[in-house]
Amino acid sequence: MAINRDIKRITTNTLLKMKSDGEKISMITAYDFSFAKIFDAAGIDIILVGDSASNVMAGHETTLPITLDQMIYHASSVIRGVQRCLVVVDLPFGSYQSNSKEALSSAIRIMKESGAHSLKMEGGEEILESVNRIVSAGIPVMGHLGLTPQSIYKFGTYSVRAKEADEAEKLKKDAVLLQEAGCFAIVLEKIPAQLAKEVSESLAIPTIGIGAGKYCDGQVLVMHDMLGINTEFKPRFLRQYLNLHEQITGAVQQYIADVKSLDFPNEKEQY
Ligand code: KIV
């Protein structure tokens, strides 16, 4: 897609300014060209090429199986669809946990091969060395604390995190460490709203919540959940804006009926 130079792009600096101006940040996931183009034109601030692609695009139970090559494929499709918003791409499980050298080479591959603008990584103190190294290479990094789905087998459940004081204290410490390491924003997933408020107020960088309440500096939802494509996932934090599952089913059933009844194609729909 040709770049339109009249469109003012969202950058990490724009997000910082939005936080200081009190303007909330909107973020949604996308995994392909067509949806990215719609979301960008609608005015979304950030598109996250989430490793939730492993669930919603590939049908896996967890985010663990998705590979670096697959994330690069999704990210480069999204990048071709956007002109204005900031694109953040998840570093997938296994591409950054072993050591900071491997983390940097995974980060460079995504940036070089997809054209993405920034990356997201799950974890706090334990990934700091990698965050430092990637940020030092000039790559913007978004942190991700609270429920971190790449660690689901350590947690054992997808329930609310950091309800206990010791976990809440660690999360607050990790948020400050990530900010000091140069992260430009932090996703807070499924934590109590009051804790998210404390963290958001203590940081200069924006927090983006999912199931973390109204005090975060922005919100993110998975597109399949908010558009009602995926109807099996109904957590309390989710607001469903459409029921595309029902609408698509109806449209496809109508198409099947039209084909079977010889209604489609009609005279005007043929050459
Ligand atoms: O992969 C993803 O979609 C995410 C969001 C849930 C924040 O990380």
What does this structure look like?
The chain is an alpha/beta fold. The chain has two domains: 12-240, TIM Barrel (Alpha-Beta Barrel); 244-271. Helix content is 41%, strand content 14%. It has helices at 12-21, 33-42, 53-56, 68-79, 100-114, 128-136, 152-155, 165-180, 193-202, 223-226, 244-260; strands at residues 25-29, 46-49, 86-90, 118-122, 141-146, 185-189, 207-210, 218-221. It has an eight-stranded parallel beta barrel with strand order 1-2-3-4-5-6-7-8, surrounded by seven helices. The protein is globular. The protein starts with 11 loop residues before the first helix and ends in an 11-residue tail after the last helix. The mean pLDDT is 97. Bound molecules: 3-methyl-2-oxobutanoic acid. The site of 3-methyl-2-oxobutanoic acid has 11 residues, from strand 6.
> Mind telling me the C-alpha Rg?
20 Å
- What string, H for helix and E for strand, traces the elements in order? HEHEHHEHEHEHHEHEEHH
Query: Which architecture name of the largest domain does CATH use?
Result: Alpha-Beta Barrel
Summed up, the domain count is: 2
Distance between the termini: 31 Å
In spatial order, strands of the major sheet run 1-2-3-4-5-6-7-8
What's the count of strands?
Answer: 8
Helix segment count? 11
Helix content: 40-55%
What's the CATH class of the largest domain, please?
A: Alpha Beta
Please tell me what the overall shape is.
Answer: globular
Strand fraction equals 5-15%
How is the CATH topology of the largest domain named? TIM Barrel
Bound molecules: 3-methyl-2-oxobutanoic acid
User: Overall pLDDT, averaged?
Assistant: 97
Assigned CATH superfamily of the largest domain: Phosphoenolpyruvate-binding domains
Major sheet size, sense and barrel closure: 8 strands, parallel, barrel
